[in-house]
Amino acid sequence: MSASQPPVAAGRRGNPWLSLIAVAFGLFMVGLDGSVVSIANPEIGRDLGASTAELQWVTNSYLLALAAALILGGKLGDRFGRRRYYLIGVAGFTVASVAIGLAGSIEGVIAFRALQGFFGALLMPNTLGTLRAVFPPKKFGMAVGIWAMVSSVSTALGPIVGGLLVQNVSWESVFYINAPIGVIALAFSAYVLPESKNSTGRHKFDVAGVLLLAAGLLVLIFGVVKGETWGWGSGSTIGTIVAGLLIIVVFGWFETRQEHPLLPMRLFRSPALTIGAVITAINFFTLLGSIFYIMLYLQNVRGYTPVMAGVLTLPLSLASVVASPIGAALTDRFGPRLTMPVGMVLQGAASLGLLFLDTDSSYHVMWPSFVGLGLGVGMVMAASSEAIVGNAPVKDGGVAGGLQATMLQVGGALGTSVLISLISSRVGATLVGSLTDAGVPAPLAQGLSEAKDAVSMGVAPVTADMTASVRAAVVEGAGTAFINGVHVAALVAAVLCFAGALVAVVGIRRGTPAHQ
Length: 516
Known about the structure:
Mean pLDDT: 81
Number of strands: 0
Oligomer: single chain
Shape: globular
Distance between the termini: 6 Å
CATH class of the largest domain: Mainly Alpha
Radius of gyration: 23 Å
Number of helices: 18
Order of helices and strands: HHHHHHHHHHHHHHHHHH
Low-confidence stretches: 1-10, 511-516
């Protein structure tokens, strides 16, 4: 450990395995929330009358706030106490979860989801930062494997728990369930977690760095989210995305001139850490974007209940659970140069498998892709955690954890936005043709083109005054247009994953030692 790392107290607060259990509670809560919301989204949209764009903001307001503040959360933990900021994050996340259920409007849900994301940003990086501080280097890989497995288990349970709650209670209950988990997490963590920090004295906090990074990430992701509405080739979209990237570049330059920066640029001297951050973003771009449209397909196109949709996607989550410890063991033995490309290839192949989806595909067409996505995610999670946090000095453990979590959330936000935008764009281009090919009269098909937002969510724009034959034709044509969009999104995700695998193979050297 670094010289500035204080000795950990003896007894229950000196046991790294108790610390792992403690941070697992908070990690479990955040992971469960992520997969539960994907199940609840269709019901939230119906109950609150939300548009496609508003439903995207239920996901993206959370991801934006989380991404903007994650490195800040890690830095605060490193400097003022990881235990302190982990507990603040758990408490705030729990309260915000309950507030979402009580909001009563889509605007309220979006606002409290953003607050929930902010507290998640205090919580998440300090889970890995704490583990980096309390575990000896030789056991850190094993701890990361268990950390990744907990994340996967919570994702596995999310669709089942969420489906049961949405179907039998209400969509609000998927947020209320965080209350008992949060209380347990607070009580147990307060009892066993040691405080760890790496104070460098009473120096000025990098407030300007915080503001620059938050502004850059917010502007960048806002441009991507609005690309669907403004048009990807419009000056507004391109200008906003370029502005976000420029602010991030200015942030990087500014950080090199600070004695105590928010994000030390020296971390990026490690090729494994840098590539691990990029692969983490691609990993969750593919995962969260794919889960979003898969859930729309299963519930809105195929008509499965939320519970059944959760059951059908269980192979994805279970495969991730299995792959996490395997990925950690393989990374310990062979390094991330093996496990990161393998995980990326698995996800790429799974995405290609989704090109075979049709409006009436049997389950045997779906499950191999679900398994491939899960195996890839679990493998990459373990490898990237070791590559990023394991290659950072202990004193920067929280910041490195924040970097990984930031790339994870930025990737997820971009995946949800970009892939759904691609689906929407393809739906807009093919809807009228798909409807007429299915037998819908041309004038009616032209009129239904205004319903492309609904079709982009997998919903057929049928009305009560349509005859049975016309209604069936509309359902068929709308489903075909949606599937056309899904195929484009899956192909883009596959290309990104294969590119990520190539970057990992070429860029990570064999036997790169971790910094201590």
